[in-house]
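Hypothesis: this fold can be encoded by more than one sequence.
Test: take the structure tokens below, design a sequence, compare later.
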């Protein structure tokens, strides 16, 4: 069984959750499926997939920074969307955060997400520098 470190980013992680925001195993960082949910449990950008995507990547940025990494370290993303309406507009956010160095990506249309009001959920894998 591999040993791993839980990565919570800059804020404490509530013990009531039975998953980790991210897990580091050696030089790999596995970022859990993330929605645009703030610290109060509210959806940021309700009804706006672009705003939700931006907020998710802001959360990723904080997680990555907490382990000395950046978006350049992300090698794969998976996006789960509940609608394709306005999905094309999320590409502008990917262009901003990845600056032309795009990771492998998968997009999946789903009937719904666990977090009510979430239009998109994104997970990622990053390769980090070895310590």
């Amino acid at each position: 069984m591999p040993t791993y470190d839980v990565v919570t980013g800059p804020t404490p992680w509530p013990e009531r959750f039975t998953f980790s925001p991210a897990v580091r195993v050696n030089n790999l960082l596995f970022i859990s499926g993330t929605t645009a949910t703030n610290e109060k449990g509210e959806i940021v950008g309700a009804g706006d997939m672009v705003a939700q995507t931006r907020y998710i990547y802001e959360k990723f940025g904080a997680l990555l920074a907490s382990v000395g990494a950046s978006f350049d370290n992300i090698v794969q993303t998976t996006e789960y969307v509940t609608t394709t309406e306005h999905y094309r507009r999320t590409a502008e956010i990917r262009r901003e955060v990845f600056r032309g160095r795009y990771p492998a990506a998968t997009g999946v249309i789903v009937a719904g997400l666990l977090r009510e009001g979430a239009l998109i959920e994104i997970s990622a894998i990053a390769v980090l520098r070895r310590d």
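Helices lie at 49-66, 91-98. The chain has one domain: 5-10+19-127.
Hypothesis status: open.
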